[in-house]
Amino acid sequence: MKSYLIKDTTREEREQIVAESLGNINGSCDGCAAGLADMYQDYIDGKRELREINMSFRTGYVSGEGRQEREGCSFW
Question: HSE of 64 in the Cβ direction (CA atoms, 13 Å)?
Fold first, then answer.
């Protein structure tokens, strides 16, 4: 398995890794995929590892407080 760490890749390789991982971002009709590409710019530039970026994205969505419990189809 090839390493994706910044120290083991060139900028061009990192660009390719992000492009292949996200798929065809220009083909999306809702416009949100382009924002995902921007999210990984620090990795491409060699500033932050993929793990750091992914963890910072996930931490913004960790919350269970105030959430209504789901009970079958009546939830909707």
Answer: 2
**Structure-block tokens of residue 62:** 């960790």
State the DSSP code for 29: S
| pLDDT, tens digit only, all 76 positions of the chain | 789 999 999 999 999 999 888 876 555 455 555 567 788 999 999 999 999 998 887 655 555 565 555 555 544 4
Q: Looking at this protein, which amino acid is placed at residue 56?
A: S
| Residues 8-31 as b or e (16 or more Cβ within 10 Å = b) | ebeeeebbebbeeeeeebeeeeee
